[in-house]
Amino acid sequence: MVELMARQMDDVFQALGSATRRRMLHDLAGGPKSVGQLAEPFAMSLAAASKHVKALEKAGMIRREVRGNTHFCHLDPGPLASAHRWLSFYESFWTGRLDELERLLREEKGTIPASQEGDDT
Questions:
Q1: Residue 114 counted as domain residue
Q2: How much is the mean pLDDT over the chain?
Q3: H/E/C letters for each residue in 58-108?
Q4: Which residues pair with 33 in a beta bridge?
């Protein structure tokens, strides 16, 4: 189970590593789109767009529905939520680090006296 989750996270971050795929996900947040519609902003072939769609499908971030000859893509935000939870751990780490940097910079500029550092009153 852990191995499966780790593989899915790898697929999610690999899919998000492409600006084209990130834009496709953004466009799908507005509702289902055909592969052709997803390809339009990039002036790419349907074959190239299909490769991007397959990467997003592999990561579980979209699902495809076939109607006649047209493939419609729908956003599935579940894997994005998992990635967000994973990143949230590091967000709290960086927030703490940035708060400390701000405190040090203010102290250096003299905007807060050194005697008040760490004072939460």
A1: no
A2: 86
A3: HCCCEEEEEECCEEEEEECCHHHHHHHHHHHHHHHHHHHHHHHHHHHHHHH
A4: 73
Q: Return the CATH number at 32.
A: 1.10.10.10
Q: What mean pLDDT is predicted for residues 67-90?
A: 89
State how far the Cα of 11 lies from the Cα of 31, in Å rounded to an integer.
23
Helix, strand, coil share of the chain (percent; to 5): 65, 10, 20
Give the pLDDT band (50/70/90) at residue 116: low
Tokens found for residue 14:
């690999």
Total-model pTM? 0.70
> 55 and 75 in contact (C-beta within 8 Å)?
no
Please return the burial class of 2, using the count of CB atoms within 10 Å of its CB with bins 0-12, 13-18 and 19+: exposed
In a domain, 34, yes or no: yes
Looking at the 3D structure of the chain, how many domains does it have? 1
Greatest Cα pair distance, the chain, in angstroms, is: 72
Q: Which residues are 64's β-sheet partners?
A: 73
23 near 43, Cβ under 8 Å? no
